[in-house]
Amino acid sequence: MTEYFYPQSMGRIILLAMEEVLGREGIRSILRLASLASYIDQYPAAHADKTFSFGTVSRLMESLEQAYGPQGGRGTALRVGRACFQYGLREYGLQLGVTEMAYRLLPLPTKLRVGAHAFADLFNKQTDQRVRVEDKGDRLYWHIERCPVCWERHTSDPACHLAVGLLQESLYWISGGKLFNVEEVTCIACGDAACSVVIDQKPIS
Ligand SMILES: [Zn+2]
């Protein structure tokens, strides 16, 4: 099967976020559990070489579930996803254009749509992940058509909590502190054609 990759810098972001959430010892045991001990105290470099495999991303997520159980693993993966955003913003904020004044002054619904498309472009251009954004009026669909988070996994429930957490935090930041309903409704790991995350465009609070 063809191998697909994230750039090293995104692998680095995931590991830094995991360390922030799990602590130093926590991430060490997850890396051992995932048979990725070579990354212990040696995270990938912050460059664009595409060598961080989708299999590595999904193995990390699977190990969270093994270590913390289905519920705990899910909660942890969501938190890791949220933590990824700040590191991602530092690395990619400029390219995304979301830190520019012109963007920040847009009305919220436009901001969400423009932000979602910019975000999808980043994944489509710089990684092997494929994302399609679909606008259905009051809902935005984030369809991950090739997904590293659940790569080659088989699960009974949607498993891409990392992606959900990342989207939650992006929306929180874009809207200046509002919460949105974000839910993964289909998942390739469950046999669906895509991992689809639905975002209600109207904030909860
Ligand atoms: Zn997925």
Overview of this structure, please?
This protein has 205 residues and is of the alpha+beta class. The protein has a single domain, classed as H-NOX domain, CATH 3.90.1520. The protein contains 5 helices and 6 strands; from the N terminus they run βαβαααββαββ. The chain has helices at residues 8-33, 54-96, 101-104, 108-126, 161-174; strands at residues 5-7, 50-53, 130-136, 139-146, 182-186, 195-200. Strand 5 and strand 6 (195-200) form a beta hairpin. The structure holds zinc ion.
The whole-angstrom Rg is: 16 Å
The main β sheet shows up as:
4 strands, antiparallel
What is the number of strand segments? Answer: 6
Say what the CATH topology is: H-NOX domain
What descriptors fit this protein?
alpha+beta; H-NOX domain; four-stranded antiparallel β-sheet; two-stranded antiparallel ribbon; binds zinc ion
Give a brief description.
With 205 residues, the protein is an alpha+beta fold. Helices cover 52% and strands 16% of the residues. The strands form 2 sheets. A 4-stranded antiparallel beta sheet has the order 3-4-6-5, covered by helices on one side. The chain has a two-stranded antiparallel ribbon with strand order 1-2.
List the helices and strands and how they pair.
Elements: E1 5-7, H1 8-33, E2 50-53, H2 54-96, H3 101-104, H4 108-126, E3 130-136, E4 139-146, H5 161-174, E5 182-186, E6 195-200
Antiparallel strand pairs: 1-2, 3-4, 4-6, 5-6
Bound molecules: zinc ion (ZN).
Residues 144, 147, 149-150, 160, 187-189, 195 line the site of zinc ion (ZN).
